[in-house]
Amino acid sequence: MDVPVLGRTLSLRGIAPDLARWLRTYWDYPEHRLPTHPYTVVVEVEEGEVTPAERHGSRRHRLPVFDFELDVVSFPGGFRCDTDPGAVTCLHGPDTTTVRVRPTGAFSAPLGAAMNLGVKEALRVSGLVPLHAAATRSARGVTLYLGPSGAGKSTTMLRALRAGALPVAEDFVWCDAATFTAYGWDRELRLLPGSLAFLPDGLDVDALTLHPDGKRAVSYGSVAPEGAGRAGPVSRVVVLRPEAGDPTAEAGPATRTLALALWEAAGFPLDAGAQRVTADFISRLGPRVQFESARARAYEVTP
Questions:
Q1: From 37, 72, 129, 200, which residue has the greatest number of CB atoms within 10 Å?
Q2: Tens digit of pLDDT for each residue in 59-109?
Q3: Which helix (H) or strand (E) holds 149?
Q4: Once rounded to an integer, what is the mean pLDDT over residues 7-35?
Q5: What Cα–Cα distance (Å) separates residue 205 from each residue in 166, 167, 213?
Q6: What mean pLDDT, rounded, does the chain reach?
Q7: Neighbouring C-beta atoms of residue 150, cutoff 10 Å
């Protein structure tokens, strides 16, 4: 089974149906069909001798995912992650990443998260940069809203929608490092109670699905015209700060503030190749975009 992911091919070989469903849930986005890219990500069952976790140049990491952590050993060209039950090994090549899955029991969220980590790292190596960001689109391009949790990214995005912008993402985007195109990669808006007041008038908030984390689920179809699309070239980056601190806004060319915010949003690439892709993307994006930094409540939103 092959799944196109932003032009790359995610090839699932001999994977059990429950594992395949998990992967398709995260990576099958029919709205983002792109021309074929030569990079392939193969996910297959590991058979025979298990790939060693420790090798020359290896480093151990504890990566937080949802309400648990993954124990990951990275090494030049890949990583190994042991979970309960099962293990995942990721090996990068020049045009293919192989993610080997060895399930030793029933499917578990940590095993699924480890598989997703393998696909995510492969996409980084292939030239894509993940960003924890809210984003909107207007005639001049995509605006990314960056900042730590609680800085006001979701609320600012909703304010931009009220001002006439279109939604791209509430939480997560992939950016093509070659074209600087951003692709919205979350299935729905997940909003805390404080953000619900900024939704369009007439939307029945009480009818929205309530998740265990206290957030309400809002479909993109309820806040955007049908067929609007959730992609476009990045033209502006707004770095939002928590309420504490200097209330004045910064505007102008790319600064150290922008670079640090982009690295924080991109997370930690495990592979040296992925680190180079990310560093190159950030260094070239800065001079191309309009940059602003402000407190969310003091920021004057424009589409």
A1: 129
A2: 999 999 878 899 999 999 999 999 888 899 999 999 999 999 987 777 788
A3: none
A4: 92
A5: 20, 18, 16
A6: 89
A7: 11
Statement: residue 249 has pLDDT above 60: no
* Rounded Cα–Cα distance for residues 214 and 250 (Å): 33
C-alpha distances (whole Å) from 244 to each of 148, 151, 241, 247 are: 13, 10, 8, 8
Confidence of residue 297 (pLDDT cuts 50, 70, 90): confident
Predicted pLDDT of residue 247: 46
3-state secondary structure of 28: coil
Alpha helices, DSSP H, located in the chain? 17-27, 109-126, 153-162, 256-266, 272-285
How far, in Å, are 145, 238, 293 from residue 257 at the CA level? 13, 10, 8
CB-neighbour burial class of residue 65 (10 A; exposed 0-12, middle 13-18, buried 19+): middle
CA separation, residue 300 to residues 31, 287, 294 (Å): 31, 23, 9
User: Containing H/E element for 201?
Assistant: none
Q: Tell me how far apart the terminal alpha carbons of the chain are, to the nearest angstrom.
A: 40
Which DSSP symbol is given to 200? P
User: Is the distance from CB of 65 to CB of 122 less than 8 angstroms?
Assistant: no
